[in-house]
């Protein structure tokens, strides 16, 4: 839902009620400027994000997915350019 800053100022109660159902985008001169949402919705989107792909895999609902073995070949030094150390 979207409302202007004027509508927001004139009917804060309505904005708070509506924000329990869905985030409210508050516009100022036609441009989105703020978002009003329930605290529950805020907690869901601000939950700790995984720091790595491994953390993400471990956080998946299905534990069997987190135990995937990947065959990653060793890094080759054959394609590295020579570096002159003068």
Characterize the structure shown.
It is a single chain. With 86 residues, the chain is an alpha+beta fold. The protein has a single domain, classed as YefM-like fold (3-Layer(aba) Sandwich), CATH 3.40.1620.10. 37% of the residues lie in helices and 16% in strands. It contains five helices and three strands, in the order βααββααα. It has helices at 5-10, 12-19, 39-45, 53-59, 63-66; strands at residues 2-4, 24-28, 31-36. A three-stranded mixed β-sheet has the order 1-2-3. A hairpin with a 2-residue loop joins β2 and β3. It is elongated and about 70 Å long. It starts with a strand and ends in a 20-residue tail after the last helix. This is Antitoxin. Antitoxin component of a type II toxin-antitoxin (TA) system.
State the gist of this model.
InterPro entries: Antitoxin_Phd/YefM (IPR006442), YefM-like_sf (IPR036165). With 86 residues, the chain is of the alpha+beta class.
List the helices and strands and how they pair.
Blueprint: E1 2-4, H1 5-10, H2 12-19, E2 24-28, E3 31-36, H3 39-45, H4 53-59, H5 63-66
Structural features:
single chain, about 90 residues, alpha+beta, YefM-like fold, three-stranded mixed beta sheet
Count of extended strands: 3
Q: Which radius of gyration do the C-alpha atoms yield?
A: 25 Å
Helix content percent band: 25-40%
Rough shape?
elongated
First and last CA, distance:
65 Å
Reported by name, the CATH topology is YefM-like fold
Organism: Leucothrix pacifica
Pfam families: PhdYeFM_antitox (PF02604)
Family: Belongs to the phD/YefM antitoxin family.
InterPro entries: Antitoxin_Phd/YefM (IPR006442), YefM-like_sf (IPR036165)
